Amino acid sequence: MTVSVITPSFNSARYIAETMRTVAEQRTPSLRVEHIVMDGGSTDETAEVVARYAHPDTRFVSNPDGGPADALNKGFALASGDYVCWLNSDDFYYPGALERAVATLEAKPNKAFCFGHCPIVDENGREIRRGVTFFKEFWYPISCRPIIRTLNYISQPAMLIRRSALDKAGFLRTDLHAAWDYDLTLRLWRHGGAVRVRRPAMACFRWTPHSISGRGYARQFDEELSIAIEDAGRFAPSAIIHRFVSRGIVFCYDRMAPAGRGK
Domain 2-256 carries which CATH code? Predict the structure, then answer.
């Protein structure tokens, strides 16, 4: 069984060693993990760090790209795994995460993808925003298409996608600024839906003021609302509720980052 992990990267030397190390730790005698690092032409020490942690199943591609979604699509095209996922160059896995995710999908062969628990950490790896994590995890037991249309409670670093479902759903939209993962989630739901991976947590998402979600959350939630409307219809109850939910989330994020709202 092979899992392909795609990591989009640009000037990621500060964090990518931890990303590389935790991907390497997912390999077992029964699970081959192919790691494809799609680098946008970094000018820092990213290439040297990747080389230091490279495995025979690591592939490093460094060329200018059209942004993270474009880099990921190129990585998907190169991937050979039965399952695919992506892990950003500042995020990391917990031990055994991919093995548990594969086992979950093997037990549910009709499901398109699975998702698990995903704490948020800061630049130094300390857990933050526990309230955000609790809010997302509150919806896990009643996970379904109407709920995911209403709010995005799935954390992308803790997702694993069946390759056949990705091929049916299509790759990421490159016209989106930040919500390409939510758009893909809704499209994947049409091809089998999702199943949850039980605790412990699968991955950590690193939030910083300079990340896409840190500096551009207002635009991200605007995009998510537009995507929900496209999927459900403008006057669908889930889309109407999503409008109020997204405004409430942006309000809360503004309070958590009073120095300046993400643009």
Answer: 3.90.550.10
